[in-house]
Every structure is written in structure tokens, then in C-alpha cells.
Specification:
Helix content: 25-40%
Strand order of the largest sheet: 3-2-1-4-5-7-6-8
CATH class: Alpha Beta
CATH topology: Rossmann fold
Structural class: alpha/beta
Low-confidence stretches: 98-116
Strand content: 25-35%
Shape: globular
Number of helices: 8
CATH architecture: 3-Layer(aba) Sandwich
Number of domains: 1
Order of helices and strands: HEHEHEHEHHEHEEEEEH
Largest sheet: 8 strands, mixed
Mean pLDDT: 88
Radius of gyration: 17 Å
Number of strands: 10
Length: 221
């Protein structure tokens, strides 16, 4: 299983509480779902439209120490939301957000990177129906999309509670943000995470998050 450090960091920061039911929307090959299980989620459902990626996620789940708490669902989240009675304490997603960029050549890369199958409106509508009372939505977006997504989320009563901007180095501007939404109004908490303090060297904060997950730190991933 190919692991992206940035995605691992996003997952490692997820506000997972022990015993929670977690949904991963657009799960790909299951990285975020696996992290949620490792962080103590009681049950993790990974919904992924692409059948090949979903099969790989299912294999990764079976090979993990948390296989009994993980399941992969080969379905569009819009359809899943219409047919399931399940509700989730935490919904996590690293959704496609390249809608303003040229299409990728590969069909599978195109599905992973563009919003043709899942618009922000579709995602918000699905989350609204799938989130349990008191539940949280946690997702990664580019900064240019945060304002629009936040406005749309507010229409269904989901308010931005925390925005953590993420940059590669201290001299770089942040390009993405880890966002936490809930049905609770109030001013959002804002902060900034720098991934690296030098080339190939993680910042102390990043290292603290990643140490449980990356082999170079002795993690279990």
C-alpha cells in the first residue's frame, strides 16, 4: 500500500475518539480508514466509488490488525446515504478538489482528482444525512475552496469549528487546510502547521503526529 505522508498527517490529526463510529468518504485504498481504526474507532466504514480501489482497500483492511472493525463499501456516497440507516460520530474525507485544473490522463486518476462524481454540494448533502447528533465532519481542502465549502455547509447547519492551515516549510504559504465542522455555532479556532523544518526533516509537531504511523519513527503502519 503506497502511503502519502501528507495524507497520513491529515489522518493522524483526525479527532477520533475511542469507541466512535467513523465514515471515510472517498476512501481510496483505505489509508484514512486504517488510521481511524488505529486511533481507536469502534467501527469504520470506507465508501469508495472506484471498484478497483475499493477492492484494494478491502485487502488492506483484511491484512491489518483492525480488520474486524473495518469494512469497504463499493458505492457512491450519494447512493449510500440514500440507502443506509447508519449514522456516524465522525465523517472524514480527503475529497477530490482539483475542479479548476485540467483533467488527468488516467481514468482512475481522473476519478480520484475531480468532482465529476461528487460535487461539494453532493458531499454536504450526504454528510447532513449521515452525521449523528453531535457528530463532526473533518476534511482536507485547498485554501481557495474553504470559503465556498463553508458557506454551503452553513446552509445545512454545519459550522466551521476549526481551520488548521498546512504549509510545507516556514517560508511557504499554506495551500491546504484541515477543517472541522459541527452543528455548533461559534467563531472557528484558527492555527497553522508547518510539516518540515528543513528538507527531509519533519517539524516537531508533525513528528509528534506521525510517530505512531510511519515506520521511520517506529510506528505500526
Amino acid at each position: 500500500m503506497k502511503v502519502c505522508t501528507d495524507a497520513t498527517l491529515f489522518g493522524a490529526m483526525a479527532p477520533v475518539k475511542g469507541g466512535e463510529r467513523v465514515l471515510d468518504i472517498g476512501a481510496g485504498t483505505g489509508l484514512l480508514a486504517l488510521i481511524a481504526a488505529q486511533l481507536g474507532a469502534a467501527e469504520v466504514t470506507a465508501v469508495e466509488l472506484d471498484e478497483a480501489a475499493c477492492r484494494e482497500a478491502a485487502e488492506n483492511f483484511k491484512d491489518s490488525p483492525w480488520g474486524d472493525r473495518l469494512r469497504a463499501v463499493p458505492q457512491a456516497v450519494q447512493d449510500y446515504a440514500r440507502t443506509t440507516v447508519d449514522r456516524f460520530d465522525l465523517i472524514i474525507s480527503n475529497p477530490p478538489f482539483f475542479e479548476n485544473h485540467s483533467k488527468a490522463f488516467s481514468f482512475h486518476r481522473n476519478r480520484a482528482r475531480h468532482t465529476d462524481e461528487l460535487s461539494f454540494g453532493d458531499l454536504i448533502e450526504a454528510v447532513d444525512g449521515l452525521l449523528a447528533d453531535g457528530g463532526i465532519l473533518y476534511l482536507l481542502l485547498p485554501l481557495h475552496a474553504v470559503a465556498g465549502f463553508t458557506d454551503q455547509s452553513r446552509e445545512v447547519g454545519l459550522c466551521l469549528m476549526r481551520q488548521r492551515d498546512i504549509r510545507g516549510y516556514a517560508h511557504n504559504p499554506p495551500k491546504v487546510a484541515a477543517l472541522t465542522f459541527a452543528r455548533t455555532a461559534g467563531p472557528p479556532e484558527m492555527d497553522l502547521l508547518t510539516i518540515y523544518r528543513a528538507k527531509g526533516i519533519y517539524s516537531p509537531e508533525s513528528e509528534a503526529y506521525l510517530s505512531e504511523f510511519l515506520l521511520r519513527f517506529g510506528g505500526r503502519s
